[in-house]
Predict the 3D structure of the following.
Amino acid sequence: MNIRTAIIGGFLVSVLLVATLGCEMVQGPPEEVPQPEERDLRLLVSWNAPMVISPLINWPDSLSNPAVSLVYGSLFFAAEDGQMRPYLADELTVEGDSKLVLNLREDLVWHDGEPVTASDLQFTLEIMLHPDFDGGASDEFDFIAGARQYRQGESDDISGLLVQNEHSLHMQLEVETPLSPWSLASLSPVPAHKMRDIPIGQLPEYLRSERPVGAGPYVCEQMQQTAEGIRFELGRHEKFFYPDEGISRVHIELTGSAETEQWHQHYDGLYVPADEVFDRDEPEGFDSHYTMPAGYEYLGMNHRREFFETPEARRAVKLAVDERQVIEHVFGEAGEVVTFLTDPSQSLEESETLYDLPEAERLLDELGFLPGDDNWRRTEEEVPIELYLAYPSGDELRQKAAEILTKQLAEVGLRVIPAPVHRDMLLFNIYSRRVFDMYLLAERWHRSTSYSYWQSDNQWGYQGPGRRPSDKDIVSRFWDDGPSDHLPWEEELAADAPVVVLGVRRGKLVVSDQLRGVIPWQWPALGDIFTWNWSD
């Protein structure tokens, strides 16, 4: 869950429970959930974010909502091996030193029969980045020339966008801002012909009241409020490019909690996003699958603090942290250890941790941070070192992680004080005041190659490694077929980045063992449902 969702999500859930983003709302008392008909699929989805059907609202978390992803789709999807594959898009290439070419499939059709064009994609970016539209996107698209000026109200258009032809959009790149392809991967086009004449101030209300028109594999036919949440009825998009061989109808119920014990008696599957943890074993007749992680859990260090000024001190902290212990004890089977910032495909067996207590102690000794009679380390001026570790109050998982990290760093004589802070104040201290020692949060993969690591004014006070990756390097890393080796700049980030990467947590999908062809994609969530079918 991203920062914006965490701050406003609780409020919007209660407000938007009765809002429809393009489906016909059916009022009335909750109905008994009928058993699925032949070829129908019923899914229970744990969802604690705004229950809206629009990729423009709460982006990019909106695509974690299966109803949104199935109605709209996305440009690319993350396969099981961590590589990106074309979905609504056909290909992504870099031309020369500063031009990105994005080609759409030529057979895409909106649910109302109109063709999907590059102008729709340009319109989508113009809406998402409009200074008067608060949908979730901020600086994630600043790699496009003119995007920052447009979203800050300094320009009337995004100068770097050029519709080359009906299916090709060219993007002029900002030379100083590294490309962030994860942002493009989680982008879903919206129909310009349906929304172009709507004033930007009226657009949120329009999205809450009009039937959604997407280009994904399913059409939203009906929505009903229930005692637990929202129920969606989805039918197959007859003109979708994939052959109609899978599930023809999908019934999705969004609920604020997946803690119900008997869900499997009424549903064929349960989906729990990566921002939650569901440790219960699958019932008899069901199989579990884990989705790709949306991002990574990390420990952030403030390089402006005297203790963290030197690379040796930061490395000592990394070496003293046993990432495997944190992830396994906090997230269980849903968690995996990764050490690189840009590789969500690493598995627990492939990833190597930096954990090395003797080396951490040696570095601290060389820096003059020696233990006193109480075994706590001190500065050369005999000032005890105390490091506050902030995390969102009420976040039980990060509280548990903070307790483990406190004990681990105590092993090398560093006194860490866990500090629960209200999320709003924590974010204000990190991103505005820059007042913190260390903190626990998560970062999305689509941000991992963004300029946050390369600009000088980031929240950590980090000046960046010796060089930044080229745009061709990044595109090659994310879109080429098959696994690829780590690039040199990834090694530099892993060694000296402003964070200790702890690992990832995955979403959980529990489905009937009578279903075949189940491959849980991360982006879009369950976007491959049209390849599923019932066993004979």
Observations:
- The CA atoms of residues 96 and 472 lie 9 Å apart.
